[in-house]
Task: inverse folding
């Protein structure tokens, strides 16, 4: 065991006064969260391919090996099943491993460990232990990449009992959600919207911000519509998460110019779902569209639609519509814009829910 | 260290003669020099108790008390030998057939049976016993063992020289499991990180109906060397030899010398499980051959011929075994089913609104079911 | 290569006159389909653990190695990833491999090969080849088994673009659907309802029956409700597949005694879905309940609910309700009856859709 | 067959001297005895063309014409040597960096570029070229190769003695890939079934930023032997040695002798891809060291010193390379984007109502978009 360094470098999220917000990209907010979590808890360690010297292919772990040493930022052999499998073992020894999967399409070799071990180990242990492993997956398309680098596998994990699945869309959410994931006892899959890694936002870091943070599984109304406006009609709810939150906000702005008000709900947590927040919005607007990049067929939108419809059936003026990827493998980058849901496609669905 | 292609280590022949200690064997003999008559009686007692337990479990399954039973009969020497080579602080990652190791680690036999009864998924405390849950997905526990060992390294619990601190991890698997990618990955990781793991393969000749020849074309011990891990074959029906070989491997691991693979050549005397019928695929001659290599017989022969034990001892062990069987039988019959709502208890350790809601629904449902019934 | 035998034994489905139905268990209907497909097409071969001498742990391949030899009924090493991976290679060489996964919970080591290779290879080849691999998975609970032997992973596959997913519920459907799967060009995952393996039914086998068979992706109205009865109210549609078809039929019988008519739709195909058949039924009854064993959260029922609601919104008198497994790992067998949806639970949901 | 721990096979030294043919080397030299000056010029030309192509692709990526480029520069000898050892009916399962093998197999370079442009996922015809699609999921193609080889066995295309019929399968992978479970499984399956596979590892020292020492603790050739597969290390920058070693392995496969693993020691001269920056992790000295072992230089030196080629030849090759580059540049610039609706074309070969419906929707959407645009 070579421990190269032990003195943590200062957090990328800033200096002495933790409550002062810093402007960070989403990627750097994650760096800051990892850094601060590692500084706060010596049991937190990072594992993954190329995360050490290189700082990861997205540079999310940049500087962390220098700050915390090779034992806590582990460049692993190229084997996802074992990244997850050894993480389970480390967790059983009392560690809190954070596994980085390099790209969405490379998580599947680890699927058995995630679904049959990580997710089920707590039930198997029946109280005699926990496995608080965090799995970070940069996901989604729109970056002009080659095959397997643009997928949205979140539904596989959300359907898996025993896991928690989150998908922050803003730097601030990325920070506190990851910090919170690293203090609670259950396995968490973090879907990181890779094409938003470079989006900037204010981040309040540190313990203070955590104390004020909401529950890990609360949705966020990213753009509200007033009760009056909703009651007056011509309003709809758009449910989004991860990379499509930006799409929804863009659509909302365009819609507003045409007199249509969209309430944008950012799910943030995919499992469990904050159904209450979505249903409350659905009750007010009576019209709901869900948007994600994953194929529509059995995507998260199916669950949101089914659940919201069950809870708010008599408030709905139109069926919940879903906008998302098609039932084909993610296409070549040069035509991905036709695959990915954009504001136009979202607005088309909004028109349809408003027309009913 | 012995070449992977050397003869399997044997210290006690099938007819109970302690093998003369020359060459490599001398080193191994030395490692169990502390195993005298008293300790051999202990080993014998362990093996006999576990075999009796196993027979009782099989009977309980036939009586409908268990959903299934995976017999370990024939593998007692491998399991007791390995378990007795471990220190209290060592950890074991078992398959679903390591009843002998569970026994030595002090896991309540009734907890093992509760799993096979379908009343739990295990549920013993690995912290207390150092014995982790049974793993049913073939090979999945090997990365766990390697990861656990990486944790041991990070805790500084290797190479301190403190015999109560330095820790080894025993990773159990079968000949069939050796074909799984994860098993090979774990071996490789342990080699790359020099993690303190003893890979312990009980090659019992069969993976359900597939002979070991369908799993590998070269001895597993050689496979290990291909990964840069010392590999050694041992007569898995010789409790002394297994203890010696695993002790050497565990010592190496604890001292910071990295992983070792031990391939114990043994035999699954029963069918794969009570659901299986080995007569469909296994030649009778094989059963007959291995009957001559029984792990208990040879220790008994040795103890009797050297005066290490007499009829009184064997009678006492038999009586104790019957007591265990009776206790186990009673325990299983009295075992109450889990509360239905317990299925929600440990899926998550933290709050989970959907689980809470579903739990509440089932609670009401169960409470009102009689009225609802049509 | 040792070829132990070459003369096919007679099909378990019967003798000379193929059009005469034989009574077979569901398991034996699959045996017959495999046998007849192998006899009809020498490129069909079977791969899996213990499928040869032993005939598989459910004896589904019993006798086939004796009939077709070791080269066509291959006892593989214990490695699911390679069972699927080599099947892809064999398919590229022109073979039609049928992979048996021993139990549902053991398919995950092969997940990467299924999702990233099998499902995507045709798109990658862009017309220059096909990979008609069939993956058979005995699935579902209710057999009193230990962990990993009772799971319902169908949603993972149905959400995966590039795969076809079917789930026959009767011996006759098992026969022709498997035969059809083995003559079409795409990868097919067959979810076999293991607790119904011993259910018996009439099977018409052979080429004649295939000619008359419907499309692989058509649902089946397993119990119809007359238009008049549906119009009169007090009727509902129950959508089921695989092991829950029996549950639905039992519920329908109990309901009928109370004057409630249930139209039972057996989906048979999970991807693609025969939405038309379900929507037609939903339009007539105005009330729909979906039932499956998999967790409700993001299970097939979510997609059925969302899709039916979208298509038949104004015909629905109540939201589509879902009955299924809970959001926890499959429990110990001794309490699985409380996890599995039964007729009682289904009828409770029916009561709720009728009450709205 | 050479022991896995022998010196890597080398037939042409870095300064271009053909090595004297004694011992094992004699056997290997014999295997390429047909490679005289003319054939060496061909090999040189292949390597030079591929290198030129690679440089052009890198330039095109910098100009924004490609989404990404994975350079094979430095690995030409390994790739051309392996490809030239194959028979027409042999099949290759590549990674994403086998541009040299693609070249020899006659795959249109523009199709390789269309993948890296983001205009396709490959799409060349493996039936025509025997060269299967590039595989981006590390190691996933190895089970395909083994399965394909099992198909070859079933077709009876091994051991017939007919040189136009007996078929070998080349399974390409990297040092990093060797850590994947599937790679080890494939090796094991090929050993168990004695499938006609040549496992061809280009150990270029790095898997993105991880040195090979992070992937294995013992040479891969030894790993192979652990699986019962002959393993051989070869100087991967020596086109002659690679050809000899792969020829021997392919001959063995075709004749029914089962699989072999060839580990070609080479070097990834560029960064992992154009998205990577190797200065962040790779010591400069390593680049400098390998610059002295360039695969083209040594062939040029040999040809010049033996009078096998003169300036005219090298000038002609250079000119031809420039032509290739120009053609490729033009081709990429003129490459039209795929039809958006083509994404639906090959997801399924048979009918699929949902895909048909979604396709129809997108067709309408694209047709009406201008009006819809806000
Ligand atoms: C991933 C996986 N595939 C298949 C099975 C089904 N299965 C249970 S035990 C077994 C054979 C295991 O053989 P081996 O590793 O030799 O252990 P043994 O049973 O002989 O102790 C198989 C195939 C499983 N449990 N997990
Ligand atoms: C399963 C999987 N995990 C991670 C990656 C990301 N990745 C692409 S190339 C690469 C390194 C491969 O190294 P090596 O096998 O040595 O091949 P080389 O690039 O050196 O040719 C990694 C980690 C991937 N493509 N697939
Ligand atoms: Mg075995
Ligand atoms: Mg490499």
Result:
């Amino acid at each position: 065991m070579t421990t190269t360094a032990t003195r943590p470098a200062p957090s990328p999220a800033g200096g002495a006064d933790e409550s002062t917000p810093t402007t960070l990209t989403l990627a750097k907010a994650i760096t800051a969260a990892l850094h601060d979590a590692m500084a706060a808890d010596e049991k937190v360690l990072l594992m993954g391919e190329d995360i050490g010297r290189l700082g990861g292919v997205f540079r999310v772990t940049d500087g962390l090996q220098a700050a915390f040493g090779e034992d806590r930022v582990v460049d692993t052999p190229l084997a996802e099943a074992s990244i997850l499998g050894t993480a389970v073992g480390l967790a059983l020894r009392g560690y809190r491993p954070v596994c980085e999967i390099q790209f969405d399409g490379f998580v599947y070799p680890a699927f058995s460990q995630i679904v049959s071990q990580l997710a089920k180990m707590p039930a198997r242990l029946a109280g005699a232990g926990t496995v608080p492993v965090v799995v970070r997956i940069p996901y989604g398309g729109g970056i002009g990449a080659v095959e397997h680098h643009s997928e949205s596998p979140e539904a596989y994990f959300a359907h898996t009992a025993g896991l928690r699945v989150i998908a922050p869309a803003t730097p601030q959410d990325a920070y506190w959600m990851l910090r919170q994931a690293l203090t609670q006892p259950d396995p968490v899959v973090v879907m990181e919207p890779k094409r938003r890694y470079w989006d900037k936002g204010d981040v309040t870091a540190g313990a203070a911000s955590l104390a004020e943070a909401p529950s890990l599984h609360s949705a966020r109304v990213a753009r509200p519509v007033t009760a009056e406006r909703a009651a007056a009609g011509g309003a709809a709810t758009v449910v989004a998460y991860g990379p499509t939150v930006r799409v929804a906000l863009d659509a909302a702005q365009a819609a507003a110019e045409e007199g249509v008000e969209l309430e944008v709900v950012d799910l943030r947590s995919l499992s469990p779902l904050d159904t209450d927040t979505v249903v409350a919005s659905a009750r007010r607007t009576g019209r709901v569209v869900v948007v994600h990049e994953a194929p529509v067929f059995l995507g998260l939108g199916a669950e949101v639609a089914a659940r919201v419809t069950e809870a708010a059936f008599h408030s709905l003026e139109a069926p919940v519509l879903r906008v998302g990827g098609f039932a084909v493998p993610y296409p070549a980058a040069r035509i991905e814009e036709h695959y990915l849901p954009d504001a136009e496609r979202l607005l088309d669905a909004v028109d349809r829910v408003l027309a009913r | 260290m012995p070449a992977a292609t050397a003869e399997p280590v044997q210290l006690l022949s099938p007819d109970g003669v302690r093998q003369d200690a020359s060459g490599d064997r001398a080193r191994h003999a030395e490692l169990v020099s502390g195993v005298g008559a008293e300790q051999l009686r202990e080993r014998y007692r362990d093996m006999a108790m576990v075999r009796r337990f196993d027979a009782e479990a099989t009977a309980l399954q036939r009586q409908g008390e268990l959903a299934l039973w995976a017999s370990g009969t024939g593998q007692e020497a491998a399991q007791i030998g390995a378990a007795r080579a471990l220190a209290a602080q060592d950890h074991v990652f078992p398959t679903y057939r390591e009843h002998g190791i569970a026994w030595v680690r002090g896991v309540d036999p009734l907890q093992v049976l509760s799993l096979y009864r379908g009343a739990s998924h295990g549920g013993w405390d690995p912290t207390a016993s150092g014995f982790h849950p049974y793993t049913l997905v073939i090979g999945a526990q090997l990365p766990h063992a390697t990861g656990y060992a990486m944790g041991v390294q990070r805790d500084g619990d290797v190479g301190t020289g403190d015999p109560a601190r330095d820790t080894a991890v025993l990773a159990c698997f079968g000949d069939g499991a050796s074909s799984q990618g994860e098993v090979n990955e774990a071996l490789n990781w342990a080699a790359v990180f020099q993690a303190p793991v003893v890979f312990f393969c009980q090659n019992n000749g069969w993976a359900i109906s597939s002979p070991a020849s369908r799993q590998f074309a070269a001895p597993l011990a050689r496979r290990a060397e291909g990964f840069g891990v010392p590999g050694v074959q041992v007569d898995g029906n010789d409790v002394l030899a297994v203890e010696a070989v695993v002790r050497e491997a565990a010592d190496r691991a604890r001292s910071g010398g990295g992983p070792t693979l031990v391939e114990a050549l043994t035999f699954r005397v029963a069918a794969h499980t009570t659901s299986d019928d080995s007569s469909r695929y296994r030649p009778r001659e094989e059963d007959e051959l291995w009957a001559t290599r029984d792990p208990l017989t040879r220790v008994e022969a040795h103890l009797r011929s050297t005066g290490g034990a007499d009829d009184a001892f064997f009678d006492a062990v038999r009586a104790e075994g019957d007591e265990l069987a009776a206790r186990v039988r009673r325990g299983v019959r009295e075992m109450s089913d889990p509360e239905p709502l317990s299925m929600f208890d440990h899926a998550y350790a933290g709050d989970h609104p959907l689980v809470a809601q579903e739990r509440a629904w089932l609670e009401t449902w169960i409470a009102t079911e009689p009225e609802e019934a049509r």
Remarks:
- The pocket of magnesium ion (ligand 4) is lined by residues D 174-176, 204, 206-207 (CB under 6 Å).
- Residues 340-373 of chain D form one domain.
- The two ends of chain D are 71 Å apart (CA to CA).
- The longest helix of chain D spans residues 37-62.
